[in-house]
Amino acid sequence: MRIVTYNVNSINARLPNLLRWLQETTPDVVCLQELKAPQEKFPEAAIREAGYGVIWHGQKSYNGVGILARNAEPTEIRRVLPGDPEDAHSRYIEATVNGVLIGCLYLPNGNPAPGPKFDYKLRWLERLRIHAAELFARETPVVLTGDYNVIPTERDVYKPERWVDDALFRVETREAFGRIMSQGWVDAVRTLHPDAQIFTFWDYFRNAYQRDAGLRIDHHLLNPAAARLLERAGVDREVRGWDKASDHAPVWIELGGSN
């Protein structure tokens, strides 16, 4: 079972790329972030024609998350991260697909930091920690995946000294992420590639992709039941080099014995 997280950075602007990638790689589950489309503007017909059932939570111009399942319908559990009934951002959606619980998230960027946006990011991380603890305890496989907007360690960023004061790499951010990881979650990509320099995002500016000046901010966290099934993980890096590409590349894992 191949599960992918992919920040598409506007689904309607990137739809040709998304459909091409779906056809070439046929993933089983795709978690999308930054749809940047209101609920009614999501290209449901095109996604379904490509062979995928889909649920999504849109928002005009910003945010937005969705879960696609090949030849199946995701069974929606929730579309809001618990903990703040006044939070109107479309940043979380959760469903089951073929016995695996999938949490798809788009964590706040938090810049400029310090400031209100950074405070919101830290509150969101704390809400995620509380909800993640409940998910982690499940006996069935759970994959908590998406654009975390967190650079976990220095090896996950090109020239880390330039990112010390950025909300993605500030000490407070990494400590908050660490509190989630301390529950026992497995970082799938890093577990299978402990020493490799792997990036998932390259800025549009300063030829970042061509220079491989990237960040690893898109993560798959697995609970023990999912981690036992983990076989492979990687990044479809070349997709970032396509014409009119998102600034993120698809990041995938493969679980065995779960179909």
From TrEMBL:
Its EC number is 3.1.11.2. The record marks 248 as: Interaction with DNA substrate. Probably binds two magnesium or manganese ions per subunit. Its cofactor is Mg(2+); Mn(2+). The active site is at residues 106, 147, 248. It is an enzyme of class 3 (hydrolase). Residues 4-248 form the Endonuclease/exonuclease/phosphatase domain. GO terms for biological process: DNA repair. Mg(2+) binds at residues 7, 34, 147, 149, 247-248. Pfam families: Exo_endo_phos. It comes from the Bacteria. Coiled coil: none annotated. Keywords: Hydrolase, Magnesium, Manganese, Metal-binding. NCBIfam families: exoDNase_III (TIGR00195), xth (TIGR00633). PANTHER family: EXODEOXYRIBONUCLEASE III (PTHR43250:SF1). Belongs to the DNA repair enzymes AP/ExoA family. This is Exodeoxyribonuclease-3. It comes from Povalibacter uvarum. The lineage of its organism: Bacteria, Pseudomonadati, Pseudomonadota, Gammaproteobacteria, Steroidobacterales.
